């Protein structure tokens, strides 16, 4: 049978108070969970922390990555090339969806319901999050994608054409000066998802290259709190 995927390594930020929601942040290609967490911490001058939300930064397992001539990198999936105009490497995407589903299930075992779990990420991490949520977990609280894109004939679009469900909202950010993942690719992804019934927002950052900035992370934090508000203590 299928080899059981090893549990993903992760860096975890615990909530200051009672844990009632969870956020999964997927790093960009070649990074690690700890690396993404540290990067955000440097931008904010503090950890991205919440009273009630556990923040989980998993690390992608190392694998050969075609755009790097087959060199090993910590990537969520392989690509034939960095372009929105080629087929998706669907086998590697689907196998990682299984590993990330295990991570979601760990949170459910901790008593967190799926409508209290958000997933998203930077660059390739945002692409991974869109596959995971819109193809396999349409009952999550929301999805965010920062400097990300989907390929033109993405399996995500095919899945949404067949879907009758209420879909998680998408929060998207993209810099107009991005030279790796073009702004137009992010915009096209946003328009496609909107046309397929996803409630989307696209926040545009003039002069921002393929990176994050403070305004963007603060907007993201506000959106996270809108989707995962503090719950009143349940009185029995």
From TrEMBL:
State the reactions this protein catalyses.
S-hexadecanoyl-L-cysteinyl-[protein] + H2O = L-cysteinyl-[protein] + hexadecanoate + H(+)
Sorted UniProt keywords: Acetylation, Cytoplasm, Hydrolase
Q: Which InterPro entries match?
A: AB_hydrolase_fold, LYPA1-2/EST-like, PLipase/COase/thioEstase
* Pfam families recorded: Abhydrolase_2 (PF02230)
Location comes to: Cytoplasm, Cytosol
Question: In this protein, which residues make up the domain named Phospholipase/carboxylesterase/thioesterase?
Answer: 11-225
Leader peptide range in chain numbering: none
On whether Transcription regulation is a keyword of this UniProt record, the answer is no
Known EC number: 3.1.2.22
> A Gene Ontology CC term for this entry?
cytosol
Molecular function terms from GO: carboxylic ester hydrolase activity; palmitoyl-(protein) hydrolase activity
Query: What function does the entry list?
Result: Palmitoyl thioesterase that catalyzes depalmitoylation of CGAS and KCNMA1. Acts as a regulator of innate immunity by mediating depalmitoylation of CGAS, thereby preventing CGAS homodimerization and cyclic GMP-AMP synthase activity. Does not exhibit phospholipase nor triacylglycerol lipase activity, able to hydrolyze only short chain substrates due to its shallow active site.
Instruction: Name the protein family.
Output: Belongs to the AB hydrolase superfamily. AB hydrolase 2 family.
Q: Which PANTHER family match?
A: LYSOPHOSPHOLIPASE-LIKE PROTEIN 1, LYSOPHOSPHOLIPASE-RELATED
Q: What is this protein called?
A: Lysophospholipase-like protein 1
- Which species does the entry assign this protein to? Penelope pileata
